[in-house]
Amino acid sequence: MALDQLTEMIQRCQVIPEDGFKVEDYEIFQKAGKNCLEEMKTAEILDIIKEEKNKVIIKCMGWNLLGPLIKIVLKKDKTSLQHCLSMLTHILEVCSPKEVLLGLLEQIEDADMDKIAETIVLLLQPLQTVLLKLGKKKPPSVGMSLSTILNQISQLPVPYTQEQEEDDAHGLCQCCVALLTFTKPFVEEVQQSYTNKMVGDMEELRNELLKFCIKCLSNPLLHAQLEKVPDVADEMPMRRFATEIVEILCCTGESLPALIFHRLLSKKEEPGFLEEDAKYSKDSLACLSYLIFVQHLGMDKFPLVFSPEFILHCNMLHIETLMKRKEESVLSKALDLFEKTLLRTNQNSVTVQFLEITCFLSVPQALVQIMTLCPIQHLRTKGLQIFQLYIDIFDVEGKYKLFRCLLEVSHHAGVEGYIIQNIKKQIDLALKPGNGNLWFSGAALLPLLRLVLFLPQGPETDLLQNLDRIMESLNLLRYLLIRDKEYDNQTGIWTELYKIEDNFLKPLHTGLNMSKAHYEAELKNTKENKKHKESKEENPLCTLSVAGEKLPNMTTEMQLQVLQSAMFTFDLIESVLARIEEIIEVKAKK
Amino acid sequence: MDPLEKSSTKNANKKTTNEPPEDIDFREINESYSQWEEQDAYDIPKMTTDTEVKMGTEPTSNLTEQGQDLTPRQDGGVRKVIKRPGDSGETPMIGDKVYVHYTGRLLNGKKFDSSHDRGEPFTFNLGIGQMIKAWDLAVASMSKGEVCEITCKPEYTYGVSWNPPKIPPNSTLVFEIELINFKGEQLTEDGGIVRRIKQKGEGYANPNEGAVVDVHLEGSCAGHVFDSRNVRFIIGEAEDHDIPLGVDRAIKRMEKGECCLLYLSPKYGFGTEGHSHFGVSPNADLIYEVLLKEFVKVKNTWDMTMTEKLELAVAAKQKGTQYFKAGKYIQAVIQYQKIVPCLELEENQSEEHKAPVKALVLSSLLNLAMCHLRLQEYSHAVEKCNKVIEMDNSNEKALYRRGKAWLQMNEFYLAKSDFERVLEINTENKAAQAQITICLQKIREHHEREKQTYANMFQKFADQDAKVGKRKPSREDGPVKRRRRSKENL
């Protein structure tokens, strides 16, 4: 039925000149053609399309069949597949490239979620053929095609583990590989323009490729695992994609340092919202920096004359951008970039002035957040290592200022304890002969010590919560009292002692007594309750779940254990405190 | 052993008598380095030419067979041998944009980097710490056209840290550098403010918008000094003190203690009006010498309390309006721009301030749109209006101003639809009615013009297009939309 209709229309139109076709003819061709294809009359349609007499008709209307054709190809029916592919090739040959281009992009844009990868892989090659046919007029179409494809690809989940990447369940890797083949002739064209000194002509195409690379950097590359996998002969597809993207970026003539340092050197005060912004997307530039400084991609094109401090400054901006994100893939890149950048920087070389730059204080704060709150264990551990590296790069005055700032803002006893440990290390260094400095001994040290040797909320301070901080502070104090002799008083600790006793030791005593009394009472209560309610089923006041799993209610036995261990902790604090008081007493007697 | 390496170790040994090299403290180097930089940069050319003349005739203590020691400490960390003398004695100033070709090698002769391989000269800003220390020292001593070879100890390059994958830790590096050209640093994209630093400042902090600055400035025009004084003013409000915009913007990029020359185009000087009191004629290029003596930054917005933020916003709004009325649109933009970043995050936070905050943000965006219209920055005007419409989709002023901007950008249909929206909201708006008439007229004119241009040339194409047009209805919405896009892009 549909076939008859189509044949009738074709026969009628064979005798009409090109500009005589009516709207109805187009409609019939499209509808009947579609129906025939759906009825699997592919052989018949192929004959019609290839018929020399129908050439003009197909040239005008053929592209209307692209949609139904592609749907059938994706079904992968064996009998019809070959017919359909032949039709596709024929349409590509005879129809106007502009129309075919739009038809193909439409198919890519309309692809169902589960068919995106397949559609893209299928259509990239025809798309490339059509684009090449456009000749000099192609750059905007290349741009449009690339952006359509990337928009579709961005819906696909990015594989993260090696297995996921090998499985490539959603076909992203496949798409990326196909994309590289797709862009190859365009990249070559731009490259050749450099040797032929025809760069001006290529400006547009160059720009489209640049936009494409930048877009790829933020998605999918920012989310992919790009580490080199040892013991794998072939490079993993995503890493290969990254390598090639950096290659293409270099081919576009855009200088890598200009991109990496753009955020620091940009003359614009306020970023615009047009093209420029897309060209310099913060995420993309940060990802590029990661590829260069961590994965060493494009390193052979990167000038080795920049000062480590300058690179540090620029990368701090990139790290700041990445650390704002929550995804493991992005955060781990942030930490890798941070680590590698710090390792490039000499210890004790960064002057205090750098701390005037906002990111030099905001990044360590973000790092503290990761160290303390990030749910991913290995990132927390790595965060702590980097924290130490970061402290190490500063000169003495820089360390001093950094400690002061971080003590004020970190609000986490563990981190504070860690900083106090570092302060102790620095004082120890400063007290070694020949190492003296203005910051970790003498007058400047006292204001820093005052931030350490006190109880944040006086006697009411939660001692368990603040355990790390309190223990480190006590250790530091004990160290100072033993190491710095009263007659030297290089650290000024001995003149400050009466204040420390008032602000730290005495309230700590009071706090300890109160806490111990409280917990002892609690312990007694619980023990008695245990006797009374031995048999009774208790209704808990509240329930607690971690990661979606409900924790079992605490048994009385467990409660007792917790209380007991708190008591041990208080004893521990008390013993160090006693030791300190002993030292003070001995000195006082002398 | 490489001859260079041999002699450099020999040299290091010679030095040990008074300065053990292992005792080098990076901080000390930095200090002496910056002290040295504070000397008048004009001294450098003399130094270079002098030594150049002396070379080979009477070697002085700091000249060995390897060349001149460029380090301020005279520790032999950077030694230069001139391969080809330059054209003239003039050397680049701090902050200048310099163009060089170079090749870097390790002591074993292995090349690790070269601008020749990249096929284009390498550019950077001199003397502000972007480059390894050896480079900032060496290039500052070169004159245009000069080619030299420098041998740099690790303390002046990458030190003990590893610079993977090519430079191992503690490497002495050898560079051959050719200084191709140099020029002042452009502070704006249009090149309207060019800075040359005479004396580098301290630290990395710059005055921010609203900071109080103490400066000494000397303005001259065609060799005639018209203004010389000490003055204190607020960044963004230089206008009130007869100081041109260019100076105001440039100071934001200066450090404390910095002294520089600023070359201003009329746009950043006294513009088309000139300045009668100073005797500056219209459209004059100006040169200012500015010394930033002291500055006090304003708090960053994240450091402010809500009350402080509101105070700041209200003050900025008043100031902006004052400039707007005086026709100083750029200055007005600077003021209005302070408001949005200061308040935009506050909207969701405090219930009590919600209304005033929203009102301030809206009005500043609308005012910005107005300023951009006057400055003929239409895309910025559209952007600001978009933000307003996002917050309040029936904002009459925003729609009207966006319509005006579209109209100027020749987007007649978009303009018309905005003005029509305005009329829907307020039927009384006569101005919008008038604008619609203009739009329709423009659309007609545009059509006429197009018709004329393409009439004969593309007759055939037009017919074909008409056919394509007929075909449109047979397809769903998608392709129609696409077809429009295709006309724009293909």
Could you please describe the fold and organization of this structure?
The complex is a heterodimer of chains A (590) and B (490). By secondary structure, chain A is mainly alpha-helical. Chain A has helices at 2-14, 23-38, 42-50, 55-61, 66-75, 78-94, 97-110, 116-133, 139-153, 162-167, 172-195, 199-218, 237-251, 256-260, 262-265, 275-279, 282-293, 308-323, 328-344, 358-373, 377-393, 396-409, 413-431, 445-452, 467-483, 493-532, 556-589, and strands at residues 545-546, 549-550. In chain A, helix 12 packs across helix 17 (282-293) and helix 22 runs antiparallel to helix 23 (413-431). Mean pLDDT of chain A is 88; it is low at 269-275. With 490 residues, chain B is of the alpha+beta class. Chain B is 42% helix and 19% strand. Chain B is built from 15 helices and 14 strands. At the A-B interface, helix 2, helix 7, helix 9 and helix 18 of A face helix 2, strand 6, helix 10, helix 14 and helix 15 of B.
Oligomer category: heterodimer
- Assign a percent range to the helix content of chain B: 40-55%
Radius of gyration of chain B: 31 Å
Residue ranges of chain A: pLDDT <50 for 5 or more in a row?
269-275
Overall shape of chain A: elongated
Report the sheet-strand fraction of chain A.
Answer: under 5%
Please compute the radius of gyration of chain A using only Cα atoms. 35 Å
> What summary fits the major beta sheet of chain A?
2 strands, antiparallel
Rounded mean pLDDT score of chain B: 79
- Please state roughly what percent of the residues of chain B sit in beta strands, choosing from under 5%, 5-15%, 15-25%, 25-35%, 35-45% or over 45%: 15-25%
Give the fraction of residues assigned to helices of chain A: 55-70%
Helix and strand run of chain B: HHHEEEEEHEHEEEEEEHEEHHHHHHHHH
Task: Figure out the total of helices of chain A.
Answer: 27
Average the pLDDT over all residues of chain A and give the rounded result.
Answer: 88
Q: How would a crystallographer describe the biggest sheet of chain B?
A: 8 strands, antiparallel
Question: Number of DSSP helices of chain B?
Answer: 15
* Class from helix and strand fractions of chain A: mainly alpha
| Termini separation of chain A | 116 Å
